[in-house]
Amino acid sequence: MRIIFERTGGIMGLKSRLTINLDELPVDQSRNLSRLVDEANFFTLPKDSSGRPAPDSFQYTITVETDTTSHTVHTSDITAAEELRPLLQELSQRARSQRGSKA
Length: 103
Description:
This protein has helices at residues 27-39, 85-102; strands at residues 2-9, 14-21, 58-65, 70-76. It is α+β, with helices and mostly antiparallel strands. The chain has one domain (2-102).
């Protein structure tokens, strides 16, 4: 499974992008991300629930690819489904960590 994550917006208008190949992660991290995707019912979420952009909010684009399917979701801080929020938090944290390690 591969996850492509992009976050834009916020107060500074920053853009973060992250691509994760779960096969390249330690087993516990891979399982955790797979669990978050499953618990979000990711492949059943609507493709676009982003709504109207709100000032200083974040917009997210998440694509999850498996051997047999691919699904992309566009959402925001305000409109994200409750079950998607833990995955958004994990991916946002990983994107911040990646950006910090490049500094």
